[in-house]
Every structure is written in C-alpha cells, then in structure tokens.
Structure prediction request, 70 residues.
Amino acid sequence: MSTSHTVADVTAAKSSFGFSGIPVTDTGEIGGRLVGLVTQRDVDFLTEEEQSLRISEVLDVVMAIASLSW
Prediction:
C-alpha cells in the first residue's frame, strides 16, 4: 500500500488476507521504497469516521532506509 491509501483499505486487506502488518511503499507497489509499516494496533481502535484517514496519518513505524549508509 501507499501512504495515500486509507484505513478502510487496510481494514479490507486484513479481512481478506489476515495480515496484521502491511508494508507501505512510496509507490504502493511491491518493489517500491519502503517508507513504513501500518500495523493492526494502528487501526484497531479507530472509529468508523476515522476509516477515511490516510495511512500517512496513522503510520506506526517510519523507515529511514534511504538515509542509512551501509
């Protein structure tokens, strides 16, 4: 998923596939740069009205992979 997907998208993926954590990439596609991880804990206690929030508003972990020097 990308940061522009919504909490409702995460909830739907959890219902369909049983995921408890979903990677978030810059493109929303496999192979994109990982920018975070939205977890079950991030969305479980949100209200019905908050289902339209973007993932960028509820991300639990922001990855700094691009800034790491190996």
The chain has one domain: 7-67.
